[in-house]
Each structure stands twice: as C-alpha cells, then as structure tokens.
Amino acid sequence: MTRIFAGPWAAQILADFGADVVKVEHPKGGDDVRRMGFPRRDAAGRETGETSSYLAMNRGKRSIALDIGAPEGQARLKALAGRADVLIENFKVGGLRRFGLDYPTLAALNPRLVYCSITGFGQGGPYAALPGYDPIFQAMSGLMSVTGVPEGEPGAGPALVGYSVSDLNAGFYATIAILAALHHRDTVSGRGQHIDLALLDAQLAAHSHIAMNYLISGRMPVRAGTASQINTPWQAFDTADRPLMVAIGNDRQFAQFCAVLGLEGLAEDPRFATNRQRMAHKPALLPVLQQALLARGAGAWMALLNEAGISSGPLNDFGAAAADPQLNHRAMWRRMPHPDGGELPFIANPVNFSETPVAYGRVPPRLGEHTEEVLADWLGEGAA
C-alpha cells in the first residue's frame, strides 16, 4: 500500500528476491508516480500511459485496484493482510486507522504479519503529521550542506543530489528491516512486528562517516564539490581532453601516483608525506597535480594509473555508462519483453546469488491489471 518511491522501491527489491508482491492502488488513478517522469512508447511509437519513474520502481509486481474507503475494499484488504507475510504502507500517520487497517487491528487478525510504515518524519514527534518529499529530507538532514560547489568558487552554493536519494535510502532500510523482522518471526518469536521508518531518519543515518566526522571533531563538514572531506587527492581533475576522477586511499598510493605523474619528489615533501599533512596543505598541492594531469588525456592517464594500482575513472553520463564494458559484462543493462510487443529496458538488481539468481518475470503492471487474478489466488474469489 505504498506510493511514489520509497515503499515501491523496497517492494521491488523483495519482488526481485522472489516475493509475490501485490501492489494495492486506488481505482481512480492509482499510484501518483504513474504520472511522473517521461512517457514510455510502444513498438509503434505510441505513448503507453506508463512513465519512466513508475517503471523504475514497480517491476515484478501484480496490481490490484481496491477502494479502501468502501466497506468491501476494507474487507478484501483485511482478508489479504490475513494471508500476507508483509504489509508496507506510506500513508500519513494514523491515516489507515479510520479504515481499520492499522497495525494493531491487522496484527490481531494475523499475528505473524510484519507491518512496515514508511513516512517522512516517523510515527511520533513534532513533525509526524507533516508532509514531505525527497528534497525536504535532503535539506533537513544536512545532506545539501555538504553537496555542491565550495564557498569562494564560481557558482558556490548547496545542490540537490541528482536523484531521490532519501527515498531510495529509506527503501533500502525498509528492505533490510523487513527481512530482519521475518527472520526474527521465523526463528525466534513466531510473531510479526511493526516497523516505523522515517525518511528523515534514514537520510541522516546514511550520512555515516560524514556525520561522525562532525560528532568526533566538532568541525562542520563543508561543500567540497567532487572532493573528499577526509582524503586528498580524492577528486576530479581536468586532463587534456576530459575530467578524470582520482581517489588516493593511503600514503603509499600517493607516492605511486606522484611517480606516474613524474613528480617523485612531491611525495617526499614533508607537507605532503601523510594524508593529514596533505589535507592541511591542499592549496599548495592540488595546483601542482592539476598542472601535471593536463599533459595527457583521461584515457591515457587511466591506463597508467590502473597499471600502478591507482583508482581512477571517467565522469560518465548515462550514455557512457550504458556503453561501459564492465557494466555490460555484469549485465546491468537489461531488457524484457513487454506484452505490447515491444521491450522494456531496465537496470538489473545488483545482487548476484549463487543459488537463487534474480529472475525478472513481470513488467510493471497496469493499474488494477491483476485484481481478479490476485483475489482468486489469495482468497479464492471468482470474477463476480
């Protein structure tokens, strides 16, 4: 019973892993994300009514259309929840209570139910009733304070991460929590439980080492563009033809990096001998490295750096990533047949199981496409 991104993302991961996922939608319009993004066209070039954002979050599922405002819809939802292992919802706090679809009510019908509530701010607290979307949580969690062009540089200011990172992080946490709750139910308690997950909490937790840097040092992290807050050199540099990302993880690698650049003496300079010293003397170090890297193109530098064991890579757009031989070897770019006669391109689940490989059997469903099928499978109801 989720919409937009966070809940559907978690449910799609579970579908990839083999769950029978039933997407419950309102008969009038369904999930709002069906109207977000770019339209997909069929093999004849006609718009299908499906959008890129919806297609990104909903493969592997069946869709049923139920009006939970009507007694019949509530009864069927309760019956489905009575059979389910997991219910995921992202209604406003308390929103399902008036329909008799809240956790205490459904847990009384099915004590083994794992009930995951995903909201912007959680089930309690001064913000619990407030609405929110991804950019709000990027802003409030502190993410935008460390993302963007540094102070003093042209275009300085905070920037929004280029995708709905708060939603997807919450979806990952939801998946982990659901699997943990199922394991506890099946190995310890025999009972399900309620999971209360907030997007704001999830995004703050995902800051991990950046937030811990502040807690330990008291120093406020800053916007650093492509650079690291804790290592240097660890950023994009211009080359003779295009930018190149370089990441130096320790002092030994820095000495090897300098040797590749023909700057052997640089690594012996006391100002740059350790990462701590390099961080303190970045204004003196980075221009020297930048000037040296302008001597060759990115591809030539990558070949030399790879040979020396130095991590580097181009700043790809999605077209370049789609052509990348490593991503293609890993089969990350996929296609599946679509019932309209065309194909649906998609990005694969990155998890590779040795015994239970991910199977992609269902394209994202049309609204209510499987209502009769699911009610028959789960509840034994006929078409009438």
UniProtKB/TrEMBL annotation:
Keyword Transferase in record: yes
GO molecular function ontology, one term from the record: CoA-transferase activity
Key words of the record: Transferase
Pfam families referenced in this protein's UniProt entry, alphabetically: CoA_transf_3 (PF02515)
Cited InterPro entries: CoA-transferase_III_domain (IPR050483), CoA-Trfase_fam_III (IPR003673), CoA-Trfase_III_dom3_sf (IPR044855), CoA-Trfase_III_dom_1_sf (IPR023606)
Keyword set includes Transferase: yes
Protein name: CoA transferase
Organism: Teichococcus coralli
